[in-house]
Protein 1
Amino acid sequence: MIVGLTGGIGSGKSAAMAVFEKLGIGCVDADVVAREVVEPGQPALSAIADHFGEDVLTEDGLLDRATLRHRIFSDPDEKRWLEGLLHPLIRTEMQRQLAAQSSPYSVLVAPLLFENDLDRGCDTSVLIDVPESVQVERVLARDGGSEEQAWAIIRQQMPREEKLKRADHVVSNMGSLAELESQLVALHKRFVAQSAS
C-alpha cells in the first residue's frame, strides 16, 4: 500500500514525514529523488549539459540549479524539454524505492502530488494543511526572502481549495508538533489495518 503525502510550501510535510519514519514506515521523498537523478555520473546530467551547455554545471561538475532554473523560467519550451527528460526518470526511481520498502505500507512525499497526478499511483492521499497566510509566515521565518517571493511560490502550486477536495485525508497543522503527531498516529493505525486486510 502506498500513501501519498503532500502539502504546500511551509505546511509541515517534512515534520509529517519524520513522524511516519519514527513509526517505522519507509518514506520516499520526491524532492530527494529529483536531486538523485541529476547527480554526477547519472545519464540525465549529461543530457542536460548536452542540451543547455556546460554553463549549467558548477566547476565541480554538479548541476547549477539556479542557472538552469533561470534558463527554463524564461522559456516554456525548454521547461517542457527538461520535464520530459526528468519526470519519467523520477517516477521510475520513486517506484523502485517504494517497491524496496519493507514496512506495512510506504509513504511517497511529494509537494506536487496532485499537480503531477502522482496520487494516481497511490492507494490513498494525506494533505498536511494550513491557511496560505500561515504558509507565508513559516516560509519567511524558515528561509527569509520576501513576502512576494513566498506568495509567488504558493501561486505556482495548486490552490488550497482544490487540494482539500482532492485529498483522501486532511491533517491540520495549525497546532503543536504533538497535535500533528497524534493525528498522524491515528492515520498510521488505519493504514496498518488497511494494508493487512
Protein 2
Amino acid sequence: MTDGTYGTQRKAAARNRIAIIEAAHELFARNPLVPLSEVAKRAGVGAGTLYRHFPTREDLILAAYQHDIERLTTTADEVLARHTSAKAAFVEWFETLSAYIRIKHGLGDALHSAAAQDMIQAAWAPTTAAVAKLVKACVAEGTIAPGHDPADIIMLMSFLWRVANDEEGAAQGRRLIAAVFSGLQTPPQPA
C-alpha cells in the first residue's frame, strides 16, 4: 500500500466516523433506542464500518455526546456574533445545552459508566469557559450584574434540562429564564 492510498483511506475513515456520529446525534435525539443499523444506514455506511469505529452501542453514545458538547462549548463566540443581544445569545446557548442534556438523560445506563463520568467531568471546564464568555458579554450589556460565578449560573440554569420536551415545557423554560435574568441583575451576595 502506498502512502497516498493509506492517507486516502484514513481520510475516508475519518469522514465515516463523523458521518456516523452526526447520524447518531440526530437519531438518538428522536429515539434513544434507535437500532444501530438505522444509524449506519443514515450515515451511508455499512454495519461493519459502524462497528469498526464503535464496537458497542455505549461507545457510539459516548462519542455522539462528547462530539455534541465539544461542538457546543466552542460556539459561544459564534452565538454571540449572531445576536445583537448578549442575553439572546445566552438564552440560545443554554437552550441548546439543555437539549443535549435531555438527550443524555434519555440514553440511560450508557452514560452512567466510569468512562462516561470521566467524559462528563472533562467537559465541565470548557463548558464553564463558554458560559464565562456569555456572562462577560451580558455584564457588558448590563443584563447581568458583575460578580456572578459561571459555575453557579450553570447550576442555576440546570432547570432547563428538567422541563418537559414539548411546547408547555418550552414556555415554562422561557418563564424561568426570565426569572433567572431578573435575579442575575442583582450582584451576588458575599459568601
Protein 3
Amino acid sequence: MKIEYLNECTIESSESGDTILAIALSSSKNHTHECGGHARCSTCRVLVLSGEENLGPRTTEEKTLAEAKGFPSEIRLACQTKVYGDIKIRRLVIDRDDIETAYGERGVERGSERKVAILFSDIRGFTNFSERNLAYDVVHILNRYFKKVGDTVLKNHGYIDKFMGDGMMCLFGLNETDPKKICHDAVTTAIAMQRELSTLNEYLKQQFFGEEFKIGIGIHFGEVILGEIGHPEKHQVTAIGDNVNQASRIETATKKAKAYILISEEVKEHLSGQFQYGRTFQAKLKGKSGHYRLREVMCN
C-alpha cells in the first residue's frame, strides 16, 4: 500500500486500516498535528488527489470538525482517515504561518466554486460632494445611504461583500442554487436601490442645498471562487475570479452609457418577463478583449 505525498515523498506500508497520520509518524514522516491527533485543530488536513475510494468514511469527530470548518469531501483529517489502498495526497498545513491561519478560521465554506450574481454599485461624483461638505456630514450621509441600500440587499437574500469608499459589492446565491432566483433577486435589489436613492435625494436637497446623488449598478452572473479571505484578525467571506472583475467593469460602463443599471447577457438569460429593459449595448469593457452584450434595466 502506497501513500504518495505530492512533491514530498512516498510511504509504503502494510498497515491497512491505520490512519494516514499513524502511518506517516511510524515512517518518521513529519506531518503537522498540533493537537496530537485528536481531531481538535485540523492542522493535519490533507487534500486527497486520488484514491479517495481507498479511504474509510469520516469518523464522528472528523464530521464535526469538517462541518465547523466547511471542508469539502476531498479534504480529510489525517489523524482520523483510515487507509485501505493506494492514495495520493497533498498536505495543506506546512509551516507555522499555515498553522496560525488554520487556527484563525471560522465556520464557513472554504475555497469552493459557486455560480453567483455579483452586483457592484457606485455613487457618481461623490468625491465632489465630499470636498464641498464637512467631514462629519460626509460620513453621516454615506452611512445613511449604505443603511438604506444595504437593507434592500439583505431583504432580497443578498450578501454585502464589501464597501469600497462610496461603492459596494454584493453577492447573490450563497444560499441558493437556482440561477433564475439568484438573478431575479440581484436585479430586484438594483431597482430597489435606485428607488431608495430617490428618498435619500429628497433629504439631500433639503439639508444640503440641492445636493443629489446618482448611482450606477452593474450585475453579472458566473462562477467564482468563494472563501474566507484575509488576516486572521480580520477576514470575511468574499468572491474572487474573472467574473467578479467583469461585474465591476459593467458597473464602470454605466458612466459612459449614462445608464443607471446594466446587466450582462448571462444575467438576462435567466430573467423572466417582469422587468422592463431599455437600450442594448455591444460594449468594450476595460481590461477585457472583445465586446460584451449589455442590457439596460429600467427602474420604473
Protein 4
Amino acid sequence: MTSPSSAADHPGASLGRPESGPGSIARPGRRVAGLLIDYAAATLIATAFFGYDQFALPAEAGFSLFAPLIVFAVLQIVFIPTIGGSPGHRLVGMRLLRADGAWTGLWRPVVRTLLLVVVIPAVVWDADHRGLHDKVAGTVLVRA
C-alpha cells in the first residue's frame, strides 16, 4: 500500500526523473556542498592571482573585492558545458543537464550563472527542487 504522498510525488516526477539514484534530482545537501566547494576554489584562485586585503574598505579593495565572485562565474560558465557541471557539482556526484536530458549547450550556463550570482533565484524553488535560475535556463541538476 502506498502512503498519501505516492512515489509519483517525488521531486523531479513531473520531469520524468527517478525518485533516487542516478538521474534523480540532486538534493539540497549535495547542492550546498557543491556550491561551497566551488566558492572556496574561486576564493583561493582569486586570492592567489589578485591578492586579498582583509583590512581594506570596499572602496579601497577595488577589483579584489569582486574577484572571487567573478572567478566563480567563470568556473561555472567554462565547466558546465565541458564536463557537465562545475568542479563542485562533479566532486559531490552531480551533473547539470537540460530539462529534457540533453547537453546544456553554451548559452544556458551563462544565463544560469548570471542568475545564480544574484542569489535570489537560487533560493526560490519549485516542487521539483529546481531553482528559478534552473527554470529560466531550462536546466536540471541531477545525481550522476
